[in-house]
Amino acid sequence: MILSGRMIKERLGKDIIIDPFDEKSLNPNSYNLKLHNELLIYDEDCLDMKKPNKTKSLTIPPEGLILEPGTLYLGRTMEYTETNNCVPMLEGRSSVGRLGLFVHVTAGFGDVGFKGYWTLEIHCIQPIRVYAEVALCQIYYHSIEGPFDPYISGKYQNNTGVQPSLMYQDFFIE
Questions:
Q1: pLDDT band at residue 82 using 50, 70 and 90 as cut-offs
Q2: Which of 7, 54, 103, 148 can bridge 92 by disulfide, Cβ–Cβ 3.0-4.6 Å?
Q3: 46 pLDDT more than 60
Q4: What is the C-alpha to C-alpha distance for residues 34 and 36, in angstroms, rounded to an integer?
Q5: In the prediction, which pLDDT does 100 show?
Q6: Is the pLDDT higher at 32 or at 157?
Q7: Alpha carbons within 13 A on the beta-carbon side of 60
Q8: Which H helix or E strand runs over 94?
Q9: Which run of H or E residues covers position 73?
Q10: Is 121 annotated as catalytic?
Q11: Distance CA 17, CA 9 (A)
Q12: Residue 13 and residue 19: Cα distance in Å, rounded?
């Protein structure tokens, strides 16, 4: 089951945290999250899964920043979230998708127990000017059935900013 907007609001401060929270961003069954002004792009021609890849930081100025096709931009939400006892999911807003801007390539599925900012995998099909603080995506929550182990540790838990892939760490786990 997907939680309604009313249920999201009722659970705020208990097992759902959205900070900052703005009631105007609450939808019938989701909550709009805004784009922070920091972006990362990879600064290498060929990425390697087995090593940290160099990134370059970009700042979205007040007049906006034009994103170009063929580049993966990593952004993050302005909102910090914590989720317990339900599964957070992230989707792009339809108004954004209709402009040919995609906010996550494959990582819209969250873990129960996640705490942090959402890193957004942003790409576009044609040049587009984006702005910080725009509602770019929405978070929604599924109830979870049965006993579960919360996500208490991991590569991305308790992050404080945009995070590039840490997949290289998977190759060294024993």
A1: very high
A2: 103
A3: yes
A4: 6
A5: 96
A6: 32
A7: 22
A8: helix 94-97
A9: strand 73-83
A10: yes
A11: 10
A12: 10
| 67, 131 Cβ separation under 8 angstroms | no
For residues 79-102, average pLDDT: 95
Contact 144, 107 (CB under 8 A): no
The residue type found at 172 is F
Q: What is the pLDDT of residue 174?
A: 55
Kindly compute the dihedral angle of the four CA atoms of residues 44, 49, 50, 52, in this order, to the nearest 10 degrees: 40
Among 44, 91, 121, 145, the active-site one is: 121
Residue 47 near residue 72, CB atoms below 8 Å: no
Specify whether the CB–CB gap between 41 and 71 falls below 8 A: yes
Structure tokens at 149: 């182990």
Q: What does the block give as tokens for 167?
A: 């997949």
Contact by Cβ (8 Å): 26, 18: no
d(CA 123, CA 67): 8
